[in-house]
Amino acid sequence: MIRRLLTLWVFGMIALPAISKPINVLIVDGFSNHDWKHTTQLLQTILEANGEMQVTVSTFPGIGKPELAQWSPEFKNYDVVIQNCNDIKGHERWPGYVEKGLEDFVKSGGGLYVFHSANNSFPQWNEYNRMIGLGWRAKDFGYAITLDDAGAITRVPPGEGDRTSHGKRVDALLTRLGDHPIHAGFPRQWVAADIEIYRYARGPAENLTVLSFAKDEKTGLNFPIEWTVDYGKGRVYNSTLGHVWHDQKGPLGMQCAGHQTLIPRIVQWVAGKEIDATLPPDFPTAEAESLRPIPEK
């Protein structure tokens, strides 16, 4: 794909004016095989530049740390929780009362944004699997989803297909499915920079809506990139966008102008708020990605 690199910081073009009651966002982080600290910093920068959102961070202290006894995120005080923890190495787990707190928060109408590798997390937590719909799981864990080029969905039963995996990161042509409010004004197809296409993400896949998909080079199959889940009265958004690895100073998946346009819209939607449907002039096309560098703290 051709790369359109914009070196101008253009958040001002799409920022909303401050309002009296901001959307209160809680980012929960503290462990991951990805660079969770850098991810949180970038998310906070993008969201706070919007002008409508107030961001708080709650960091898991670590198993065995004395601070863990006092760690209890007050989910009910927020409109949206962004989950940025990944225990794929099996070393960490939230206390049971925190897990129950998140379940109750979403069931009662709270918004949950499962950020990138957070859908790799907590396979033993049944309600989390229901909340995320699909995640990084074993071949026999649950259903996977594939799509044909017209967007028709096939559910792949447990044991068929393969375990979850991905190839190298690519500049992928995304095709949006339907006309979800998060995508208002988006072109039907656009190039997302430096993303992982998950093959056979698996889970209960209940009350799930696929928002976009892309073709995996190895299998030739289309797999979901973005999807939402209705969980109780709450809304959940999940995607594979936004990879931030430990060696990435300026991760292209976060510099992607399309992804940066999505992030505040996702928060607005899961919070049940009106979505700013402004399409910035640097939004990617079906022929070219577009990068928007992010000021680093």
Strand content: 25-35%
Ranges with pLDDT <50 over ≥5 residues? 1-19
CATH class designation = Alpha Beta
Mean pLDDT: 93
Q: How many β-strand runs?
A: 15
Shape: globular
Helical residues, percent: 10-25%
Instruction: Count the DSSP helices.
Output: 6
> What separation lies between the terminal Cα atoms?
30 Å
* CATH homologous superfamily identity: Class I glutamine amidotransferase (GATase) domain
Q: Tell me the major beta sheet.
A: 9 strands, mixed
Please identify the structural class as seen in this structure.
alpha/beta
Strand order of the largest sheet: 3-2-4-5-14-13-12-9-10
Radius of gyration (CA) equals 18 Å
Order of helices and strands: EHEHEEHEHEEEEEEEEEHHE
Domain module count = 1
CATH topology: Rossmann fold
